[in-house]
Automatic annotation (TrEMBL):
Keywords: Membrane, Transmembrane, Transmembrane helix. It comes from Trifolium medium. The keyword Membrane applies. The chain crosses the membrane at residues 30-52. The lineage of its organism: Eukaryota, Viridiplantae, Streptophyta, Embryophyta, Tracheophyta. This is Transmembrane protein. It comes from the Eukaryota.
Length: 57
């Protein structure tokens, strides 16, 4: 279930017009690419911590 949500983020350049746009006039800084991934990982980690904490406690 978690993996299906993470799959579309693997190839963002294809969704926004292809690799040539990404490397040309339309260059996206690296932090704009990494921030959504980091936020998603933090949210998933928080959810997993809550689940395991409830099971242990």
């Amino acid at each position: 279930m978690m993996m299906t949500q993470a799959a579309p983020i693997v190839l963002p350049t294809k969704q926004f017009g292809g690799d040539h746009d990404y490397q040309g006039r339309h260059r996206v800084p690296l932090w704009q690419f990494l921030v959504p991934i980091i936020v998603m990982l933090v949210v998933i980690a928080a959810v997993l911590c809550c689940i395991f904490h409830r099971r242990i406690a």
